[in-house]
Amino acid sequence: RWFAGGQTNLCHNAVDRHLATRGDQNALIFVSTETNIEKAYSFKELHAEVQRMAAILKDLGVKKGDRVLIYMPMIAEACFAMLACVRIGAIHSVVFGGFASHALASRIEDATPTLIISADAGMRGGKVVPYKHLLDEAIRLSSHKPANVLMVNRGLADLHPVEGRDQDYATLRQANMDTVVPCEWVDSTHPSYILYTSGTTGKPKGVQRDTAGYAVALAASMKHIYMGNPGETYFSTSDIGWVVGHSYIIYGPLIGGMATIMYEGLPIRPDAGIWWQLVEKYKVSVMFSAPTAARVLKKQDPSYLTKYDLSSLKALFLAGEPLDVPTATWIGGALNKPIIDNYWQTETGWPIMAICNGVEQAPTKFGSPGKAVYGFDVQLIDETTGEEITEANKKGVIAVNGPLPPGCLQTVWGDDKRYVSTYWSSIHNKVMYSTFDWGVKDEDGYFFILGRTDDVINVAGHRLGTREIEESISSHSNVAEVAVVGVADQLKGQVAVAFAVLKDPSVASTEADAQKLEAVIMKVVDDQLGAVARPARIRFVTVLPKTRSGKLLRRAIQAVCEGRDAGDLTTMEDPAALQQIKDSVTH
Ligand code: AMP
Predict the structure, then answer these.
(1) How far, in Å, CA of 354 to CA of 457, rounded?
(2) What does DSSP say about strands 121-124 and 127-130: parallel, antiparallel, or unpaired?
(3) Hey, which of 289, 343, 438, 462 would you mutate to test ligand 1's pocket, going by the most ligand atoms within 8 Å of its Cβ?
(4) Strands (E), 252-402
(5) CA spacing 20 to 30 A to 538: which of 222, 292, 408, 498?
(6) Which H/E stretch holds residue 233?
(7) Euclidean distance between CA atoms 450 and 459, whole angstroms
(8) Distance from C-alpha of 123 to C-alpha of 369, rounded to nearest angstrom
(9) Separation of 530 CA from ligand 1 center, angstroms?
């Protein structure tokens, strides 16, 4: 608990607090290269829109402490919705627009929202991505049914309104143009939002964030890590469905009195210069993206990176997945700007490791996200003994000696036991938080991240649980058993590869039949979880490598897929199983 006994409001800190000093300054700059809409909202205008949205929520019966699920594309109304929730003390839960009905249903079931806010469709690469039928299906699948669904109609796809449940945002907004909705003061420890993330089990965990600790952590990070000043512009290319979107598209920059750019579109459309064009136009001083995006740009004409005036830009921050040295070197050179890697998680809400130039200037070492950030007592723990590793360059589990600083998760929504048993362990009188990442620390205190210790994979900066993908594939009637592993990929960092045992293998006995079945199963994953979780390949085998006690040897499968030595296999039941995996990947 941080700042217990205090009262505050996140929306007040992000919006209202700035009205007197910077009311006419840009707050939210919405840019969609998909619909060709570009619209800037001043703090005053944002304040008005958020109040209209808050009035609608209240009209629809949303009260303090109620959950509101937001399933929306990257549009300004999603920002209004988030801020309106925290304004009235409601707890938002944003679900990434790329997730499909099953993934959405499990989150509706867990968060039990009073209201869901959505839109007819998103757009990606010029294609309309309809949302409404996925939402209707998710509500059908869930045992919890929200009383109302508020729909933003962009005029992109059919809405199929459900009588008595679906409400039209534009109509209700019109009725509330001048409604004043004051901020509801909440306890410092009042939950501001729930954000679901993947873990070892198939069931996503609802990371629960507080209010005051989060506001303080973000405000401090703007100064000490990102070095963004009030009046400047922050551009994070993430999505509001992820933690970076929460912390550094919406709350961080606004709390810091900065304008924030919310971008709907691809980094290479209309051409690979679009981001840099925005940097020039809005004098962006801080930019935040993911290594995958840098790798995408690396494949394009490099002249796009030097075509625009980037003099306002102080640094490019990259996070979400390992930043490889060639990518860091290339983009740093091409932009002629400092590249700052930072390491963190949905759970922590802000960086655990970074170079904090706002505290103390320090050189960057490519391949490393830097040193432990103030507030985090980061230690490397020996997996077998539980002892702290003090020796340089020795691998251990990255842990934080509790308590966690302000801004980190309070608990797992509705499941304190799971929070404690998942993340915390007591080692020699120390209570330690596990990040579930491997790492090493060099002689200078710089950390290097070596991948997850659990079954979480990271595809293009998106965190996915292999168990969730396995459960989805298993729902196909011909799949008896399946193993999904993350395999190193040059562009995306990792991709998911599945190995499935069929009940009736004759269906995939020819190459053509196997390909057909592979496509059918991929469609199952698309429909249930979303294309973001679709494996790059689904290969069919007759047996999976397991230990004699029946445990799936995922690390061995992964090693074989990456052409590495599979390690100690003395406990393996059937060595031929691994050979099959080997044959199928080299085939
Ligand atoms: P998420 O919760 O989606 O932000 O994913 C968090 C996980 O992404 C971490 O536990 C790491 O495995 C990985 N990750 C995030 N940032 C970095 C980074 N800068 N370098 C290496 N891995 C990272």
Answers:
(1) 22
(2) antiparallel
(3) 343
(4) 259-264, 284-289, 315-319, 339-342, 353-354, 371-372, 378-381, 396-401
(5) 292
(6) strand 233-236
(7) 15
(8) 33
(9) 21
Whether omega before 575 lies within 30 degrees of 0, making that bond cis, reads: no
Instruction: Decide whether any atom of ligand 1 lies within 6 Å of the 423 Cβ.
Output: no
In the chain, % of residues over pLDDT 90: 92
The DSSP element (H or E) to which 484 belongs, if any, is strand 479-489
The pTM of the full predicted model, rounded to 2 decimals, is 0.96
pLDDT in tens, 404-454: 999 999 999 999 999 999 999 998 888 999 999 999 999 999 999 999 999
Q: What type of residue sits at position 459? A: V
Please tell me if the CB atom of residue 493 comes closer than 6 angstroms to any atom of ligand 1.
no
- Strand pairing category for 115-119 and 411-412: unpaired
Q: Ligand 1 atom closest to Cα of 323?
A: 20
Q: Are strands 284-289 and 233-236 parallel, antiparallel or unpaired?
A: parallel
CA distances 297 to 315, 461, 555, Å, are 17, 15, 31
Instruction: Give Rg (Cα) of the chain.
Output: 24
Each residue's pLDDT tens digit, 2-19: 999 999 999 999 999 999
With a 6 A CB cut-off, is 494 part of the ligand 1 pocket? no
Instruction: Tell whether ligand 1 has an atom less than 6 A from the beta carbon of residue 435.
Output: yes
Give the Cα separation of 45 and 22 in Å (integer).
Answer: 12
Distance 129 CA to ligand 1 centre (A): 27
**Atom 20 of ligand 1, residue of closest alpha carbon:** 322
CA of 330 to the centre of ligand 1 (A): 21
Long-range contacts of 151-154 (CB under 8 A, 24+ apart): 151/118, 151/119, 151/120, 152/72, 152/75, 152/77, 152/117, 152/118, 152/119, 152/120, 153/119, 153/120, 154/35, 154/75, 154/119, 154/120, 154/121
Cβ pair 377, 401 in contact under 8 A = yes
* Residue 8: strand pairing partners: 186
d(CA 381, CA 398): 7
- Residues near 230 by beta carbon (within 8 Å), at least 6 away in sequence: 18, 22, 256, 257, 258
